[in-house]
Amino acid sequence: MQNRQINRRNLLQLLGLTGLAATAACAGPGSTGGGQGGGAAEPIPSGPIEGEISFAHWRAEDQQVFEQLIAAFVAQHSGVSITQDIAPSNDYQSTALQRVRGGAVGDVFTAFRGAQFVDMVKAGIFSDLTGLPVVDRYSAALIEPGASDGKQYGLPYQLVFNMPVSNLDALEAAGVSEPPADWDGFLAMCEALRGAGFVPIAWPGGEPGNAGHLFNSMVMNNAPSPDMCTKLETGEYSCTDDWFLKTLDQYAQLRPYVQPNATGTAVEPAQQLFASGQAALLATGSFHIAAVRALGAQFPVGLLSPITTSAGEARYEGIHNATFILGVNTASDVRPAALAFIEFLSDPVNAAVYANGTGQHLTVSGVAYDNPDLAATAGWLERRTLLAPRFQFTDLDIRNAVENACTQVIGGTDPRQAAEDAQRVVDQRIG
After folding, report:
1. Which residues contact 399 (CB under 8 A, 6 or more apart)?
2. What is the DSSP letter of 429?
């Protein structure tokens, strides 16, 4: 892979194109050259399935399952090799566009739904997959987050639930037989868990990429409309509005129920706290169930989202998201092979290997799930869930400011002060 990176860099220098590439970096959707400009996107060419493929993503916990799938793919295509290029999720969120642009890394790459996908489409990194047979392997209702302006640029692979994972044994020990139907019930559950010797909520407040998942549940029923984060970003809503102040007041009420130094806790220690049975809830999402199993968790798990209103006012029971958007890099020299690998991952049989090995529901149609944790959480596929609102933000500075207000409140900041601080950032960005 290093040789290919050097060759591309030298080629640009020899042709005198470095300056041209820099000036064309703001090309709009559909441009070629990994965001380097050049007009309408070219279709992925036909050609031999061969070469070195770099697969860029953020799911380190899935590395072994992907290695199993890669071995099966390479067995079918002897002229191919695939290397995983994995970054922590927060790093991937902030640096992937720069790293993938140009194609030295990420012939096949992934994007988070929301701001990152939007930015990557604008940069011209995604090849256009519209009309290709691989698209038909997916549930049409679930892959809209990978589309833009009527074109299918990426394929959201995972269907996840960005809401707390629960230790059902801990809930039973605390006398909790049903998920709380309202906010008072949620606080009462937390108090019962604390009284039974558990940390009610393990929350990775020191890692913004994972700390923000709880935000989805906290705003889903408080906000006046399901597009609340879009409206915060446009200025139609404000962080000092009553509904957001209510949300921050409720974060303040959670202070006694998270682990000590919660605002300084990374995701791995939070997972360990949950996996060891010390914490009853892990406030991230279903995508971490496999990780806590790998840490030794033996108890049955479920999903449990806080309801921040009365039962009658609650429009949603939980949160879902379609993410891990697979794409073919427009700058890749091995696009036929890259597309073939995505087609391989999109086959229901191979997708089932990934799903059952990682504990992830998928957007691929016809996948057979036999993982016990997937079976335990499958009921959420039919429940009233909201598409994760934190990924409505297209400006990461605004998203970070809004979510950081919640973190600051958990850390002791007055909710009104935190709201005003966040709104100042929003005003600066949209002003």
Report:
1. 115, 212, 229, 390, 393
2. H
Q: Can you read off the two tokens belonging to residue 213? A: 């998942």
Does residue 165 contact residue 303 with C-beta atoms inside 8 Å? yes
Residue at 333 is within a domain: yes
Q: Into how many domains does the chain fold?
A: 2
In sequence order, the β-bridge partners of residue 353 are none
108: containing domain = 51-160+321-382
**Do 296 and 373 belong to one domain?**
no
Q: What is the CA radius of gyration of the chain?
A: 22
Which residues have C-beta within 8 Å of that of residue 142, sequence separation ≥ 6? 156, 159, 322, 363
Q: What does the pLDDT read at residue 7?
A: 34
Same-domain pairing of 81 and 179: no
Q: What is the mean pLDDT of the chain?
A: 90
What's the confidence (pLDDT) of residue 41?
58
* Rounded Cα gap, residues 204 and 309, in angstroms: 24
- Is 309 in contact with 219 (CB distance < 8 Å)? no
Specify the CATH number for the domain of residue 152.
Answer: 3.40.190.10
Residues 287 and 369 in one domain: no
- Does 201 have pLDDT greater than 50? yes
134-157 residues labelled b (16+ CB within 10 A) or e (exposed): bbebbeeebbebbbbeebbbbbbb
Mean pLDDT of 279-294: 95
DSSP-derived letter for residue 124 is: T
- Quick one: 255 and 354 in the same domain? no
Contacts of 405 (CB under 8 A, 6+ apart): 239, 248, 418, 419, 421, 422
Whether 44 is in a domain gets the answer no
On whether the CB atoms of residues 218 and 250 are closer than 8 A, the answer is yes
